[in-house]
Amino acid sequence: MTASKPATRSKNMAGPLLRGGEIAVAACEAIQEDNPEKQVVIEDHRTYVRVEAEGGLIIRRKTMEEILGRPFRMQELEVNLTGFSGQIETDENYMRWYLKLDL
Amino acid sequence: MALLDRSEWYDVARATNWTPRYVTETDLFPPDLSDPFGLPMTAWEAFDEPYKVSYREYVKVQREKDSNAYSVKAALSRSKYYDSADEGYLSLLKLHYGAVSLTEYQACQAQGRMSRFSKAPGMRNTATFGMMDEMRHTQLQLFFPHELLARDRQFDWAHEAAHTKNWAVLGGRHTMDDIMMTRDAITTSIMLSFAFETGLTNLQMVGLASDSEAMGDFTFSNMITSIQSDEARHAQLGTPSIEILIKNGKKAEAQKALDISFWRVWRLFAILTGIPMDYYIPLKNRHMSFKEFMHEWVIKQFARQLSDIGLEKPWYWDLFLDDIENHHHCQQGGIWSWRPTVWWNPPGAVGPKERAWLEQKYPGWNDSYGRYWDVITGNLLDGHEEKTHPNCIPVICNMCQIPVSNRPGPKWKARVYQLDYQGKRFNFCTPVCKWIFEQEPERYKDFETIVDRMFSGVIDPPTLPQVLIYMGIGVVSNGGRDGYDYSWVDGHRKQAAE
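ok -> structure tokens follow
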């Protein structure tokens, strides 16, 4: 995964904080794939990777299965999900981080 | 056999608000334990936990987390990391385990209260998992330090701290009793799940993990980030509570619960996380300053969540921003000076290079906190170690139980905020601690600070040796000394010689 950091960040960034591991690496890839219209910002802080984008992000089970090459239950992401910015929505086919208000 | 997707059965399985026939609804859910705000049952049935999990998924995921944490520990214990670990870093671990391990166990009870007394079935469900999470955290954080006991008796505080009346423990207990042990289910979900777990646990469990990884202690960093992955889930039960209260005209009540608990937990975490991050971690291994972490995690991330769910920043936000620049620097000075009273060996660790770093991260440090350390450094260089031990008793805040202090130097800010109530004078460190007391004086007025206990006859005779025994020092283990045996002064000695 590559780290990028814009000079300024908006007030509407949301997304997961992942700790290292196979699933986290796959999740970073899946998030880029599942959010093609977004500029995904990935910040590496050693024990966690902050993944965010303006207005939030989504990750889909199907994409994770393609990347991992095995069945994947969305809940497995929890093993590496140490936190997130914004609010969360969980479903068996996706996980989504978002903000209600646009500031 | 194909299993139904969770969303196909979840709402039905969770609809457990049956109509009581043998007892009244008030007997089933007494307001003091359940909902003192008086919202109807149907209002709470709208509670929809954003982070859903089924029991089947829970067991599978938790098993994986545990097997990872314990196997990393087992694999790395052969490396004998702790035999040559930095003494300042070991102090970080001792402080962490003493303050956290059994607090997690207490949190089981708070989660248990929510899982029994909440009128919201979704909260009861989420808190049941939360209760099991906290049990896991207790087990991990008792088991991991246990192997270090043979090496260093001070690690015994992981289990013993909560059973002592050490001043630092009293401070932690007073706060935790206030926000999670003695509140109804709904208030607990705001104070514990939202203010504490969503707002501040990240600092210790993720922020500090980055530093411990830099120290090469993968066992610890892996274990605490594993814990935080539980917190990230069960902390979410606070959000729907707040949204339901706001929707039903109780925003002021929710805001007040947030304002009280956020401040109370902040005052503790500045000590628990702030001091180790800016003083105990060796300079070359520091990742970010405590202030930088606060800006990333709290001022940006948490404050943004606050506005998104419809609450305001606490009324004392400006005081809080100022406290980020001061509180932990004050307490580093205080804890180091009264080092025989704590169960770890706090390093002074303010050599010339560390001071330059502190000045860079906290402009003005040299002209304020630096002056305090100038006197100490001078005494150590002159061979007067005895002068670094204060012979006075600090004034303790009647709310947070922490010594009253603030910025020293030309821009002196230390002062006590007083209140006379029922013939007794109460001292507070800040307008916020005083405000919390004023919200419910009857709740707080009878608690004696450690210094009150010296005057009221509880600690008898009120002498330093007796105080130390009362606090468990020399009983559970020996008290603290300078973590580096004053070697950090050497840089100043060299400078003076040049």
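DSSP finds 23 helices and two strands in chain B.
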